[in-house]
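Below is how a single chain appears once it has passed through the pipeline. First comes the sequence as given, then the structure the pipeline wrote out for it. We keep one example in the README because the format questions we get most often are answered faster by looking than by reading.
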Amino acid sequence: MIVRIMGEGQWKLADDSVEELNAVDAQLEAAVTASDQAGFEQSFAALLELVRGKGEKLPDDMLHDSDVILPPGDSTLAEMKELISGDGLIAG
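Resulting structure:
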């Protein structure tokens, strides 16, 4: 799975990370839906850290189709409300 964090680049994650990504994404969606600022900050940071920590950073000069595109790390709760659908940021 290829994940792009806007403004940072792309990471390649092993397929076995999908379940963990989906779990953190569900927490993020719940926090955003509830307008829970602290929960949003915690779960969004966890999602980004999961990608950065478990993923292999791809060279900037190698572009791949992204399976998931995440907003920049400085995104706000209000911005996230506009992005999250019923599936969260990560469909599936």
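The radius of gyration is 13 Å.

See the next section for the split statistics.
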